[in-house]
């Protein structure tokens, strides 16, 4: 059963005004972890409103009780990544969030002491170069939306659009860890081999770029090699969640895919910088919907009483698109996707249990993507391939532009919010990326037969 | 053009007798790099005969010129892994190998000084706990044997057993880095979901375990994100090679595979402990065979004049099987595979060029497996699935045992030798693993519907 504590108290406000604004992603009830560079040094931090607590500065501030769990948690981030903190039991990160909440709340006894060190302790987030929050040993991407999977099966003309294994296990593939990047900046259009309109195999800038809106879990404590994690123990191994944009070069993927996605994905994957902790999400847990009566029975190692009771989240997710023309005209980005985590057929606990069921070891900082979170509704289609019915019905923007794929200059921003009556709503920040034109290829742009 | 130097001199012998034995894997011309634990501390080393140079001891021995490239290379391994050395230009590892060859050759001027420190400097390999030679950021597995691919296509009953992309690009998938293990010890039979003989989906110990004989390249210097590596620059990015056994749980793989292999592989992958350097393999380089006239033209970014001239290796590879009964009877392991690197359709330089063609970044210590190195001949089938014609023709051992898959207690040993007239033959050591029975599953062995 989920336990709530003082950090969840909906009455709390912070003396940092931007944390109290309606719709703020990072109120005092959130306090997500991240990393950034400051004065040329990698540091870990905790977001509050439009600011980030610099944990290296905090460690030297004297504001934490020496030897306390909170101080030990803070010390564990000294190398500027969260890996060591993630490897520790939840109570350390929990103690640090509780200590920060006590320092940052409106009626904090130590408010004056903190405010004396504001410049060192609480830089504005927009002044920082954000980094990946940790080193990712392995990145796994799942395929857990039935609607996303069924639609793609229909586009391929399959008699049964759902793979036979879909309802028996959460389908997944190993992703590329080296090409994970934090939100922001350019997403360079990749070169690759694909079939052109005449069916000829060519090599050049990939024409069919897409986004995929996903939620991703960060592994905290790992498991020993050969020792599976039981589904109801999985929560103890998930440190928190971020947004993931699994950028896809569909033309490359369609041609290359024999043993799964490879170069069609590994040119760039974007994650939002702040890890919203499992603890902060506790008030938004919800029970799973009953399995359909004609679904195959759930195997015991994927069934957990606790997971059934609280494996879901009251979480809505969005994607916005802006184009160069829209920005030049001063127009807002257009919301193209509005979906819900309910649209996943499998829970993250089931993904963890399945992933480790063969003895595979997860390590602190590993990333598990949900797969594209598409729903049954048209508005809940979470990639352009689905939004355009595989290109048949182009996406029409308010200024008359149309899209069947992302063009150079197009920018996608993913966002998400957990909301429930009686709790202060929290957000995930944004996962942003803008398509940049392909570089000229060093071996010569024009490919000739050798 | 490959440059040979004094470390390749076939006339050289070592004062360490085991390095001069006929058929020794690690003569003074090889000097491969590895890592091990000694006195509870991770250290890097270089193999010579039945001994390993302890590079931590060497760094403190005064035997290397302070500030020399060799000394800097040695210092770079102080953390007990090779990652930092791999990230340096080839000349550092080359200088260290040359310095070691000068210390270990029969007529070494400093022979007496080295021999005074033999216990510290030159432990026997069999006294050491070997480790993975480096931290692997990402592991990629290719599918580059036409014969392996065609046979599997035929087993599936495909009209065209070769995927359309096979001759246009080296097909690959991302593997799991966390479950890579150094040669030796148990390979625990995994649990997983699969279809039983009645077509029912069940969860239990995987019945159809197989081995796959592969060669794997270790990446040295990486490439910057978005900056592809040209095929003829790839050699500068490959530090060396080891053997890889890509253990496969075929029953799991057949059921799960929608987006490529996942739990059917990630329970354990074994690599041989010693990295045979690209430099040591230089005498064994060979030109590629001409492409078949009906093959599609090779795209320019996969064609390199240097790669065409020396992208191959005079390298034979073997797999031996022993069973519990064979060992109890004191019988030798049975050679079940004898193949050659010629059986790959793509070179490692082409794999590197393809892998980075979309801008994906490789990092020092990344591992690229060749895929199963099966040839056209029956003897050159490099996994049990092929050796048994997908189970139709069981493998018959001299003692009357038969196999269509690996059973508990079965042990596979992979080995390889580079041989060419005029050069001292070098070996790779062994890649060994023994199947151990599945652990009882924590959630309950008997799977019930929930």
Automatic annotation (TrEMBL), chains A, B:
One of its GO terms (molecular function) is fumarylacetoacetase activity. InterPro entries: Fumarylacetoacetase, Fumarylacetoacetase-like_C, Fumarylacetoacetase_C_sf, Fumarylacetoacetase_N, Fumarylacetoacetase_N_sf. SUPFAM superfamilies: FAH (SSF56529), Fumarylacetoacetate hydrolase, FAH, N-terminal domain (SSF63433). Its EC number is 3.7.1.2. It is an enzyme of class 3 (hydrolase). Substrate binds at residues 253, 372. PANTHER family: FUMARYLACETOACETASE. This is fumarylacetoacetase. The lineage of its organism: Bacteria, Pseudomonadati, Pseudomonadota, Betaproteobacteria, Burkholderiales.
């Amino acid at each position: 059963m989920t336990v709530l504590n003082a950090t969840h108290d909906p009455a709390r406000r912070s003396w940092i005004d931007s944390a109290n604004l309606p719709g703020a992603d990072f109120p005092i009830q959130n306090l997500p972890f991240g990393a950034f560079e400051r004065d040329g040094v990698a540091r870990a931090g905790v977001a509050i409103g439009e600011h980030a607590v610099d944990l290296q500065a905090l460690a030297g501030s004297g504001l934490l009780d020496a030897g306390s769990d909170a101080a030990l948690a803070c010390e564990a981030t000294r190398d500027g990544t969260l890996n060591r903190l993630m490897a520790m039991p939840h109570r350390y990160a929990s103690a640090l969030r509780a200590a920060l909440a006590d320092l940052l709340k409106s009626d904090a006894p130590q408010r004056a002491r903190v405010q004396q060190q504001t410049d060192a302790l609480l830089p504005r987030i927009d002044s920082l170069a954000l980094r990946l929050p940790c080193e990712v040993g392995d990145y796994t991407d799942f395929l857990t939306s039935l609607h996303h999977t069924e639609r793609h099966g229909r586009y391929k003309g399959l008699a049964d659009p759902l793979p036979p294994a879909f309802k028996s296990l959460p389908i997944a593939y190993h992703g590329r860890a080296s090409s994970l990047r934090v939100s922001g900046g350019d997403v360079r259009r990749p070169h690759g081999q694909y079939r052109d309109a005449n069916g000829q195999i060519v090599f050049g800038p990939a024409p069919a770029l897409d986004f995929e809106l996903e939620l991703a879990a960060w592994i905290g404590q790992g498991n020993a090699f050969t020792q599976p994690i039981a589904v109801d123990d999985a929560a103890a191994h998930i440190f928190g969640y971020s947004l993931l944009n699994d950028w896809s070069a569909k033309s490359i993927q369609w041609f290359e895919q024999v043993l799964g996605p490879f170069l069609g994905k590994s040119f760039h994957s974007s994650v939002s910088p702040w890890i919203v902790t499992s603890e902060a999400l506790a008030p938004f847990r919800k029970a799973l919907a009953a399995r359909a009566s004609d679904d195959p029975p759930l195997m015991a190692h994927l069934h957990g009483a606790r997971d059934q009771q609280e494996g879901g989240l009251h979480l809505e997710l969005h994607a916005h698109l802006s184009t160069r023309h829209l920005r030049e005209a001063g127009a807002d980005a257009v919301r193209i996707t509005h979906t819900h985590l309910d649209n996943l057929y499998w829970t993250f606990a089931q993904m963890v249990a399945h992933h480790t069921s063969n003895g595979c070891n997860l390590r602190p900082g590993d990333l598990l993507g949900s797969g594209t979170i598409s729903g049954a509704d048209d508005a809940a289609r979470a990639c352009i391939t689905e939004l355009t019915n595989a290109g048949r019905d182009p996406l029409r923007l308010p200024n008359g532009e149309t899209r069947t794929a992302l063009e150079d200059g197009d920018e996608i921003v993913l966002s998400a919010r957990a909301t429930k009556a009686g709790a202060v709503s929290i957000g995930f920040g944004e996962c942003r990326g803008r398509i940049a034109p392909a570089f000229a290829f060093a071996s010569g742009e024009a490919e000739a037969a050798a």
